[in-house]
Each structure stands twice: as structure tokens, then as C-alpha cells.
């Protein structure tokens, strides 16, 4: 299948596609001690899409799919006003995307993970210059899916002025 910017604009992002019958739990701990900050997240989502039904015409049942996401981020801020920082972040997700089934028709479970290292400097309160290196991997996607064995890595430099 040919690809184009318009049809693949979310290709680096994963959408669990569970807008209906959603049950979700999220835990976000945060700890700060002097210049060290540690933030975590643990999320569980269980839900369906309108197309996630099975059974006979007179007895349809919702097929719920599950997703789990977890992350941890550590940042160390230094200098007198904590205007410089270094940090690392890890995010992982496992879940059951709609429409991805094995040859026997069983729901597949896939994974996406991302690791990033970053450093930044606030020359003033509303200006930021930062650099970040990121590695992302797509795992267990079927061979006919464009994300099969997908991965990317790269370096980014960003300047921000906020008001």
C-alpha cells in the first residue's frame, strides 16, 4: 500500500482506540528532593470500540480489549535557580489493538516502548533551550502491519519562548 503524509500522520503515535465502555485507572506518583524529581505513571484501560462485538444477530456481546502503560522519569535540576537540568524517561505500553488477530483469530498483544535522554537550560524564566535523544520500538506487530519491527531514534534540539 502506498503511504502519504495525510494517511500516515499518526504513524509514530499509538492510539488504543477504545472510546466506548471504558474502565480506566491511573496512578501518578511524584517525588521531589532538592534538585531531583522523579515522576511515574501506571495506567490500565479496558474498553471497546463500536465494532468490537461478537455473537449472533440476536445476542451481541462487547469484546473488551486491554491496555497497560507505565513510565518513569527522572530529572535533576541544578545551578542556583535550578535553571539547568538533565533527565531520562522510559515509557512502555502493552495492549490489544482493534483488528490485529493471529491466524487462528485470537486477539494479538503488542508493545511499544520509548527511552529518552534530555538536557535543558532556562536562560530566563520564559525561555528554554533543550536537546533530547530518543529511541522507540514497536514489538509483536504482525508481519503485514506497517509497524512490524518498527523503530526510530534521533536527536532533537528545541528552543521555546513561553508567555
Number of strands: 10
- Termini gap: 44 Å
- Largest sheet geometry: 8 strands, antiparallel
Radius of gyration, whole Å: 20 Å
- What is the 3D form? elongated
| Share of helical residues | under 10%
The structural class is mainly beta
The residue ranges in which pLDDT falls below 50 over 5 or more consecutive positions are none
Percent strand equals over 45%
Q: Can you give the mean pLDDT?
A: 88
The count of helical stretches stands at 0
Instruction: Sketch the topology as an H/E string, one letter per element.
Output: EEEEEEEEEE
Tell me briefly what this model is.
The chain has 163 residues and is mainly β. 0% of the residues lie in helices and 60% in strands.
What does this structure look like?
By secondary structure, this protein is an all-beta fold. The protein is built from no helices and 10 strands. Strands 1, 2, 3, 6, 7, 8, 9 and 10 form an 8-stranded antiparallel beta sheet that branches. The protein has a two-stranded antiparallel ribbon with strand order 4-5. The model has no long low-confidence stretch (mean pLDDT 88).
Q: How is the secondary structure organized here?
A:
Elements: E1 20-27, E2 30-33, E3 36-48, E4 53-56, E5 59-62, E6 65-78, E7 84-95, E8 110-124, E9 127-139, E10 151-161
Antiparallel strand pairs: 1-3, 2-3, 3-6, 4-5, 6-7, 7-8, 8-9, 9-10
Entry keywords:
eight-stranded antiparallel sheet; 0% helix; 163 residues; mainly beta; single chain
Amino acid at each position: 500500500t502506498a503511504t502519504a503524509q495525510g494517511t500516515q500522520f499518526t504513524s509514530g503515535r499509538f492510539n488504543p482506540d477504545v472510546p466506548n465502555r471504558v474502565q480506566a485507572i491511573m496512578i501518578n506518583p511524584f517525588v521531589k528532593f532538592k534538585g531531583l524529581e522523579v515522576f511515574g505513571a501506571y495506567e490500565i484501560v479496558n474498553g471497546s470500540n463500536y465494532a468490537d462485538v461478537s455473537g449472533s444477530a440476536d445476542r451481541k456481546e462487547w469484546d473488551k480489549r486491554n491496555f497497560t502503560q507505565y513510565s518513569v522519569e527522572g530529572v535533576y535540576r541544578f545551578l542556583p535557580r535550578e535553571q539547568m537540568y538533565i533527565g531520562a524517561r522510559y515509557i512502555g505500553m502493552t495492549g490489544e489493538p482493534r483488528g490485529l488477530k493471529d491466524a487462528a483469530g485470537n486477539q494479538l498483544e503488542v508493545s511499544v516502548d520509548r527511552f529518552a535522554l534530555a538536557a535543558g537550560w532556562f536562560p530566563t524564566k520564559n525561555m528554554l533551550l533543550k536537546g533530547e535523544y530518543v529511541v522507540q520500538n514497536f514489538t509483536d506487530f504482525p508481519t503485514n502491519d506497517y509497524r512490524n519491527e518498527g523503530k526510530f531514534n534521533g536527536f532533537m534540539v528545541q528552543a521555546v519562548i513561553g508567555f
